[in-house]
Design goal:
single chain, 257 residues, alpha+beta, Arc Repressor Mutant, subunit A, Beta-Lactamase, 6-stranded antiparallel β-sheet, two-stranded antiparallel sheet, 46% helix, 20% strand, Tscrpt_reg_IclR_C, DNA-binding transcription factor activity
Length: 257
């Protein structure tokens, strides 16, 4: 679990903030140049150019013509990040296995800075395309992974995250208040799994089960698919059984690894 960075005391370094804002911008749109970056971030061209030169020297970004993109060094960084996460190989194996068995999208997520972060994703034979990618984050109130993880966090952490979230309605079914969220979390704890009933994307449903180490929540595993295949009966029956079984396998293998 991680506390929101803006809640921690202490000063921040402006130049580091600018550098990471540049990285975030290049992640959204590769190939843009100094002028566009300066306009987007509200800094002078000279300031942006100095930061770009430093990032390029450190092989963080690559210059191509008049524009820049993120460097392949990020692949190495990503690999090290996953290696530092305990029992990732166990999670990866079970996610891949469940995707192959069901033919759908299977994902594993963890909580970081009050959002759900996707740690691993596998696509089965019949999987539909979604915007989620490994490393990206989603709000916890509108996803089954997020709500399921949130349901099993310590009460004070639940309160902290719930109070900090902006409940933007993504669809007609999205939870839009802390009160609604708390009711949903209670339901999740009672039934042992969470549902996303077209709450994040119209036409997609998802079911998730918590993965715990004793009473500590480690993350959650989910299956996602089109509403035409993910009927109410399947969500609360066969599909819920799939994710609970997979979660149990991860828990057992983690405990005895």
């Amino acid at each position: 679990m991680s506390s929101p960075p803006n809640k921690r005391p202490g000063r921040t370094i402006r130049s580091v903030q600018i550098a990471f804002n540049i990285i975030d911008l290049l992640q959204e749109e590769a190939g843009i140049g100094v002028t566009r970056i300066a306009d987007e971030l509200g800094h002078s061209k000279s300031t942006v150019h100095s930061h770009l030169r430093t990032l390029e020297e450190r092989r963080i970004i690559v210059r191509e013509g008049d524009g820049y993109r993120l460097g392949l060094r990020f692949l190495d960084v990503a690999s090290h990040v996953r290696d530092q996460i305990g029992n990732f190989d166990i999670v990866q194996k079970e996610v891949d296995s469940l995707a192959e068995e069901t033919g759908e999208i299977v994902q594993f997520g963890v909580e970081e800075y009050g959002k759900v972060s996707y740690l691993h994703k596998a696509q089965g034979e019949h999987a539909v395309e979604t915007l989620s990618r490994v490393g990206t984050q989603q709000p916890m109130y509108s996803t089954s992974l997020g709500k399921t993880i949130l349901a099993y966090l310590p009460p004070e952490r639940i309160e902290e995250i719930a109070a900090a979230m902006e409940y933007e309605p993504k669809t007609a079914n999205t939870i839009t208040s802390p009160e609604e969220l708390f009711e949903e979390l209670e339901t999740i704890r009672e039934q042992g799994y969470g549902i996303d009933d077209e709450e994040n994307i119209n036409g997609l449903r998802c079911v998730s089960a918590p993965v715990k180490n004793d009473e500590t929540i480690l993350g959650a595993i989910s299956i996602t698919g089109p509403s035409s295949r993910f009927t109410e009966d399947r969500l609360h029956g066969e599909l819920a059984d799939y994710v609970r079984s997979a979660a149990n396998v991860i828990e057992l293998n983690t405990k005895f690894s």
